[in-house]
Amino acid sequence: MDFAFGPEDERFRTEARDWLTEHFTGPFAALKQEPGGHPGEGHGDMAARRAWERELGTGGWIGLGWDRTDGAYGNRAATLTQQVVWAEEYAHAGGPGRLGHIGENLLGPTLLAHGDSAQRARFLPPIARGEEVWCQGYSEPDAGSDLAGLRTRAVRDPGEGTYRITGQKIWTSLAHEADWCFVLARTEEGSQRHHGLSFLLVPMDQPGRIEVRPIRQLTGTAEFNEVFFDGAVARAEHLIGGAGHGWRVAMSLLAVERGVSTLVQQIGFAQELSRVVRLALETGAAEEPVLRDRLIRQWAELRTMRWNALRTLGAVQSPARNPARNPARNPARNPAQNSVRNPAQNPSRDSAQNPARSPASRKAVPHDPPPGSEDPQAPGSRDPGPQDPGAPSVAKLLWGGWHQRLGELAVQVRGAAAALGPARWTAGRPYELDAFQRLFLFSRADTIYGGSDEIQRTIIAERVLHLPKESRR
């Protein structure tokens, strides 16, 4: 894969920039994401954010890079480099966290890989138009990092042609706003672990059958939810990938989540690091040798993460790994790598919020795929499966610890002032946090959600290094 930005990419960049300049104005200006806004933060009311999704859909900016084998769904065609170009320009414009991230970047590619033509025709166009918001029903109270231990059940009613879903999901981003939820549930009686699971699309508007309870966090916000299913209905034609093939579909989705989106995520990381570096220079904290060394290490590790993400994508798109086409083996040919600049030298272009770093993208459900547990290829699936079983785990270990350390640096460079909020606390008003305090508190969970560090190391040990398996009951 040649990741260099060519003339077509630069023309695409100009088009994206011009569109954002023209459309990200007026009533949408209030949605602008301020530099340093934490990833779970969504400015503006939900009506305005939904209207912005529809505006993006009308412009054809949702679903860039979707497989067009079976036709378009209202979106633009875009190469991988153009997808990154759009993400960069959106971030630089201060675009808000996306309500439609889960539908566009997780469910969309999954339907293209595992859905049938009727399912793609029903669900992809509304996603591309920005009309339907999705949430992800994976994690459960007793099945977080060990997703294969989930207990939510879906029973088929052959007379009605529906499934009745009973159980609980937790840490469900956007469930309080979502129109639909894709749910991983156990459909085979007596099945265990990754066997007997199915992937179902469930409408959320089912009063008395679906209850959503927000979860208040350290930051004072409540982006995540508990979801209780009490006989919720899912239609049989909304079963993706075939009955019992849910594990493979779920793992395919998580691979998508940790693919291109990892590169996009790093745009937001760069802007956060830029602000921490600027603050360290302004306060004089950068003169302290140990702290200065930590800042430099953060910058170097961020570049390493980007190169690793490019290497991973290059290996997938260029199996032969031709050095002339692989950016990791021939970095001189890859100006895209230089887009993660030294934030102290050029902070202005790294100072906007990244659209993919909504709570949805960051709170994807943890999982623990047992080694050698891959299900047979689901009927009609076009997903070849992961080429490097350890790549997602390596990426998660890299960015989780990095971002957590950045949160610690963010308060360290402020010294004692880090204990003070931006406004005086009163009994009639809850406490407020500034951007650095939110970053510190929110990032404490980075090494837990999305698959804890312990689980990621187990996956690498068993599936890559082939060490003895950990006992599972």
Structure explained in plain terms:
- The strands form two sheets. A four-stranded mixed β-sheet has the order 1-4-5-8. The protein has a four-stranded antiparallel β-sheet with strand order 2-3-7-6, with no helix packed on it.
- The two termini are 42 Å apart.
- 47% of the residues are buried.
- The protein has twelve helices and eight strands.
- Mean pLDDT is 77; it is low at 35-43 and 319-386.
- The longest helix is centred in the middle third of the chain and has 29 residues, at 289-317.
- Helix 7 packs antiparallel against helix 8 and helix 10 runs antiparallel to helix 12 (453-464).
- With 473 residues, the chain is an alpha+beta fold.
- The chain has helices at 7-23, 46-58, 80-92, 101-114, 117-128, 246-257, 260-283, 289-317, 359-362, 391-412, 435-443, 453-464; strands spanning 134-137, 153-157, 162-169, 180-186, 197-203, 210-215, 224-235, 239-240.
- It is 38% helix and 11% strand.
- The chain is globular and about 70 Å long.
Compose a concise summary of this entry.
The protein is built from 12 helices and 8 strands.
What is the N-to-C succession of helices and strands?
A: HHHHHEEEEEEEEHHHHHHH
Number of helices: 12
Which percent band covers the strand fraction? Answer: 5-15%
Span from first to last CA? 42 Å
